[in-house]
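Ticket #4471: complex job returned nothing on first submit. Input attached below:
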Amino acid sequence: MNVDPVLMSRLITTMTLGFHIIFATLGVGIPLMISIAEFIGVKKKDPHYRMLARRWARGFVITVAVGVVTGTAIGLQLSLVWPEFMQVAGNVISLPLFMEVFAFFFEAIFLGMYLYTWDRFKKPFTHWLLSLPVVIGGGLSAIFITTVNAFMNTPEGFTMANGAFAAVNPITAMFNPATPSKVFHVLTSAYVTCAAILAAISAFMMLRKKASDYHKKALKLTVTVTFIFASLTAIAGDLSAKFLAEHQSEKLAAAEWHFETEKGADLIMFGWLDEQNEPRYEFRFPKLLSFLAHSDFNSEVTGLEEFPEEVRPPLWIHYMFDLMTAIGIFLLAVSMLYLIFSKVKKWNEHNKGLLILIFLSGPLAFLAIEFGWILAEEGRQPWIIRGYMTVEEAATSSPYIGLMFWLFLGLYIVLGTLCTVTLRKMFRSNPAEEELEKLYPTIEKGDDS
Amino acid sequence: MSYEMIGITVLWIFLYGYLIVASVDFGAGFYAYYAKITKKDHVMNQLISRYLSPVWEVTNVFFVFFFVGVVGFFPDTAHYYGTALLVPGSIAIILLAIRGSFYAFENYGSKKSNVYMFLYGATGLLIPASLSMALTLSEGGFIVEENGVVSLKYFKLFTNPYSWSVVFLAIVSVLFISATFLTFYAARANDRPALTLVRKYALFWSVPTIIASLTAFIALSQHNQRHYEAMLDLWWMFGLSVGFFLIAMALLYQGKHYGLAFISVMFQFFFAFFGYGAGHLPYILDPYITITEGATHQSMGFALIVAFIAGLCLLIPSLILLMRLFLFDADYVKGKR
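Support reply: We reran it on our side without changes. The output follows.
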């Protein structure tokens, strides 16, 4: 079998990142949820919330372990699989990479402290304070690493001299045009996803057994947070589209199957392309793309035909865009529905249908993360550094790359399976209600059911 | 001092930091498994897991810090090492992944598993062996660039006495450093049975450590004359290293001041490691990358150093807090909290 090293390099990176991104998202969002739950618990002196924080933290450790090792993998793979890219771009992006490691370091130190000092301090607030550096560290590492990716989309902060980067300004490179919208979108979507997955767990428990107070409180907290961050993610998505229209219009045009530059452009959802590259069976929202791109229904949106064929992204990213936005709207709708139901006295917010929808929103949120990420990455093909270096020039020349792919595939299958098995065992054998009684014997009977 | 000199010094300090904390970690994993198969696990495992649990992720970061920093300060390393190390590097990643995640599965999961324990112990010895390979490669002769294509000469590498002496040194040093640390930790915890056991390990592994150091020294003289002579010029550093080794041995043998003994071991490796590193300069990869020609742009080098100082202001207080909570808190070490 003759494998193309460039294709294999791309596949390895896709696989590693696709796997890592699940745990990275959890690493950014879960600490926030833990911190909120513990804060409420301490403030209200409510053992339910403190137990929530404890149990989430315990599960979180397992996912952190996988996040750390796959993060190490991607860090090393950057140089192993894309040596020529790192040789050139290393001059410009090593600052944020370096800072990301610092943020990660900071987070790792305090996570260890947080996990092993539950009952060591006289004041419970002292322990809660330890959760803040974990939240901040997780957020900061997401911000720094996103600036690297933003740089690859809209490179700035250097001049070209004899085919190499010169006159490098690391700060300008970090705060390139893509940074603000990307950082905003990455953070909000990580928070909404984690809230949604925790809500899904509570909904699942309530579907299986009669709802206990513990799970009801968990659901209320997580769905409320889901709603807040789903709204913010929608705003972030809108900002990203406006950014794309201005700085990376070929990505937006490919995602929207917008071929000819025109005023009052329609937004196209779903459908597929026929042989003449005409969309079929699509939903058309008149003039909405113009509005999405420039906040004006009659503005001009650049079409794909303005770009030479060899630098156009693949057209299938349209489906990624559709799926991501559809899930985003679904999350917003379901969480809003729950909140409305819980406000109206006569309606039961814990009815089976709604619980099923909440349960679905967890895994769907993760899918949206993957789709959105694929959209962003495939949307800048064929470039690795847009306008300067193609993926073909950046990949390794080593003939062993194909073999490495299978090795890593095996690793991720093993890690993914064992992580799931461990998490299931951990919570199955030790239900929340039993643990609550053990730790807080004062809790009135009847709480567990 | 030029910025590239500061850069390489900082990175070398971090690699040294990794060498110490990772050795403690890797060795402890091996001892934990060894104790299990020799049915002494009840003596040791409590001690090891109390120390390891809060710090295991921190260890990994030292390593990530080092390789991200090297590529940042010296981007040419990506071109040479990146291409040549694809296979050994990937294997090291996989070993690290198995080790890190299995530790969590084993310790926080509900069921104890012998297979996890075995893999955790075995990777503890295989990882230092595979990582030390990078040091061997840096001596030159194994990574070759022909017509712009970089490749690694595997046959030459696996038949070379120097590369094997480095692997051997890495493994025995890990076991020695780890045992000295655990001796200190057991003494603090007032854990007599564990202390007797790990002190025996420390004394046992000291002999191969010093033999392996000498062997590696001699093998280097055969492989890279220039580096060897540069190291001879720094003879006093290696003299200090041996001196601290003797102090550590004396303390361990007499069975007192274990904290001081561990610090002596840290100094022993500090001087040997820095003597080795200083002799290696100006090459990062002999003969392709030197620290001056391979360095990044001045503005980036400067920014990295600023980021580094700012980062340290954040990290050092946090690390001190971590140590006070888990390493020097007598009640915690004794298992009362």
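The beta strands of chain A are 159-161, 164-166, 262-263, 267-269, 272-273, 279-280, 283-285, 300-301, 383-385, 389-390. Closing as resolved unless it happens again.
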